[in-house]
Amino acid sequence: MKLTIQAGIVGLTQRKKELLDREYSNLQRFLRGDKAVPLYSANKQQALRYYKKVKLKEYPLSLRNDLINLRKAKAFWFLKIPVYGVRGGIKVPVKTHREFPQGKLCESKIVKRKDRYIAMLTFEFPAPPMRECSSILAIDLGERFAATAVLWQNGTVMKTLFLGREIRGVRRHYAWLRRRLQERGLTQVVKKVGRKERRVVDAILHRISKRIVSLAFASSSCIVLGDLTGIRQRANGKGKRFNRIVSNMPFYHLTKMVEYKAMLVGIPVITTSESYTSQTCHVCGCEGKRKTQGLFLCPHCGEYNADLNGAVNIAKKFERWLGYMPLHGAACEPALNQPMLEAPSERMG
Ligand SMILES: [Zn+2]
After folding, report:
1. Cβ(231)–Cβ(261) under 8 Å?
2. Which domain-ending residue is among 91, 124, 157?
3. 171 and 105 within one domain
């Protein structure tokens, strides 16, 4: 299994910056047909190997498998980048918010964004075996809470987590801010603010997904996620405003984060259509409705927290499958649990 981690190349000395700039821009020139340009031979080879049809854009510097070297010295990680004219290449400090996985570093890339260089480091390591699961952690994705998690064990709710309530507020704040900036014609600032919003939301999503995966790990659960088609169906007929909010919610990103974090520790993740879960009463199975956004009303049993009701329904829907799962080995169809090859973007400071 492979995992790609972004790491910012930071604190370059003037000389290393110049050498990297030269190698990178010479690569672009080489790709546009300037074959005489000074470029490290292996970097040339890599370029010829990967970029057969060159269009008018920039290409990352591809680091060959056997030349890659990442070493820790004191508190810093250093990546070796082969450049023309410097024996052994240059060693540059890289910074990431995550731990690098234990595994073999493979062919990786250096991309340039604005004036910064980012190393896309790809690690290869054996996938951990799928863990046995004896309970279900059901996740209902929603607007009020980005995720409502219900730990379902032996037919009862053992624990409930309401996660990501702050996302809606963050999004509202930035929407307001963007509107104000737009009114004043500050388009560049609007873009900048948009990127800032993504970073803020991403940080929250990382926290939520981490919480979900560690609860699943501690309780030997598999994770069942309501899938996105369900949410879109649910959103239909509720007006434009609601539709807009739902289609902008970072459900997809959260789903991917949960999937890859779970995969790293061998927790099966299943997505299930939750198209009817918001209309069904989790106690009697009757059809009910959402009285307000937060309340579900069953004609027989009364009122429940709507998000909790949704999550329990997801757990119940999947429960009957749990009995069919083998005690050892894969707990679900591999096709249902495809590994994600690339980690959702990791932001740098
Ligand atoms: Zn009921």
Report:
1. no
2. 124
3. no
Asked if 65 and 107 touch (Cβ cutoff 8 Å), the reply is yes
**Residue 281 and residue 159 share a domain:** yes
- Considering the domain architecture, whether residues 14 and 60 belong to the same structural domain is answered as yes
Distance 276 CA to ligand 1 centre (A): 14
- Distance from Cα 4 to the centre of ligand 1, integer Å: 46
Residues 120 and 139 in one domain: no
Same domain, 17 and 150: no
Task: Confirm whether pTM is higher than 0.85.
Answer: no
How many domains is the chain partitioned into structurally? 2
Q: What does the pLDDT look like over 87-129, one tens digit per residue?
A: 889 999 999 877 888 889 998 999 998 889 999 999 998 888 8
Both 141 and 79 in one domain: the answer is no
Query: Domain range spanning residue 118?
Result: 2-124
Q: Which of 287, 283, 277 lies closest to 314, judged by CA?
A: 277
Among 124, 152, 186, residue at a domain's last position: 124
CA of 283 to the centre of ligand 1 (A): 5
> 280 C-alpha to center of ligand 1: Å?
8
How far away, in angstroms, is 3 Cα from ligand 1 center?
45
Reply yes or no on whether the pLDDT at 148 is more than 90.
yes
How many other C-beta atoms lie within 10 A of the C-beta of residue 22?
Answer: 16
CATH of the domain at 329: 3.30.420.140
